[in-house]
Design a protein that fits this description.
This protein has 252 residues and is an all-alpha fold. Helices cover 69% and strands 0% of the residues.
Length: 252
């Protein structure tokens, strides 16, 4: 039988343990509050930077890679927005978008957004090109992505790469989902690059197959200019007589 004195000693020890636990809990809350105020807020994509590749992250999604890609997309946009407002430096953007697109290889908007942000604002065309090329490798039948690749080269900072632009505009025009202006941009760009024979063939294709009467008229005029310039030995004249191709809404 436990004596009254033993029961009293046990109660005192129990009460003491509770006091210690409460004191530790209060100290923990205080430390957490101080840390929350003093420790710098993490980069919105800091957790993604620990993964050397999206291939390492994908198994951890347990079959929900698309959902994880949606989250990564939101964080990527947040990362872009923060740096767009501050230093305009996008050091981790290529890696971030590589992780995102490894989770969802068909996420074409991510390749486009990331590539143009890197090229135009980040001023790092090499990274922009790598990201876009990965998108084309993973989506070889995408006419819309090929067209965007052509436009990336067409507006390349420091000088247009017209031949590469034309290659991708042509690639885009051969796909079922090609933007309606892909063939026109291909012909225009070949002509601007001085490849008049190729440009003539492309304009002829526009003239023969476009359902738009206005475009057929433009193509016919371009073909006439090229023929006249070649016959007179005035190739530069055909190149100079160019205007920026117009993108018309609604399948023009």
């Amino acid at each position: 039988m436990i004596s009254l004195a033993d029961r009293l000693r046990r109660r005192r020890r129990f009460a003491l343990c509770w006091l210690v636990a409460l004191a530790a809990g209060a100290a923990t809350v205080a430390v957490a509050g101080t840390a929350g105020r003093r420790v710098p807020r993490p980069n919105p994509l800091a957790e993604l930077s620990y993964y050397p590749s999206g291939a390492y992250l994908k198994p951890a999604t347990l079959g929900h890679a698309e959902t994880a890609a949606d989250l990564a997309w939101l964080r990527a946009v947040q990362y872009y927005g923060e740096h767009r407002k501050t230093d305009n430096r996008f050091i981790d953007m290529e890696h971030v978008f590589d992780v995102l697109t490894s989770l969802a290889p068909g996420y074409r908007a991510a390749y486009v957004f990331g590539s143009f942000a890197l090229a135009q604002e980040g001023r790092d065309f090499e990274k922009a090109e790598r990201l876009m090329q990965r998108g084309l490798e993973r989506n070889p039948r995408s006419g819309s992505l090929a067209f965007e690749a052509g436009f990336l080269y067409y507006v390349k900072p420091g000088g247009r790469d017209l031949r590469r632009a034309a290659e991708y505009f042509e690639q885009a025009s051969r796909q079922p989902d090609a933007p309606p202006q892909a063939a026109r941009f291909a012909a225009f760009t070949r002509q601007a690059a001085g490849e008049l024979e190729v440009a003539y063939a492309l304009w002829a294709n526009v003239f023969e197959h476009s359902p738009n009467a206005y475009l057929r008229q433009i193509a016919e005029e371009r073909m006439r200019d090229i023929r006249a310039a070649v016959e007179r030995g005035e190739r530069e004249r055909a190149i100079r007589r160019l205007n920026t191709p117009v993108v018309r809404v609604g399948g023009s």
